[in-house]
Amino acid sequence: MKKRILYLLTGLLVCRLQFEFKQRTNFFKNGKGKGTITCDNNEKADVDLKIYGGWVALKSKSFQSGGTFSPVSDISMLFGSYNAPEGTTGTGGDMTPIPVVSKSGISLRFTNPSDGEALGLTPGGILRVIQQK
To answer: Rounded to whole angstroms, what are the CA distances from 56 to 14, 75, 114, 121, 129?
Structure first.
């Protein structure tokens, strides 16, 4: 209800991304997935997701998760390339994923899966959100 009021008062939408990746390893440099963006004004968009530069994934062959975008005025603003900040997280081979990526003032915060494993891009990684035709 609060998010709906935010939209009515400010014209800003709160949108969420639900997605699935099918991958066989715990870490991959490039990956593809599919997802759906759903906004508080009931707009939806099916999207293809492409990851470049690394991702720490779950131990299973596929996983589902999601995230929340920062408020925007239009769903079309959510498509494009999101970057993880440069820098290091963790030491040696123990890399911690970065749970927030951003582009032009818009951020996407990943939701950790129910089993508690961390989810996110590695430093310098890129996530492309592409609207399906």
So the answer is: 26, 27, 16, 7, 18
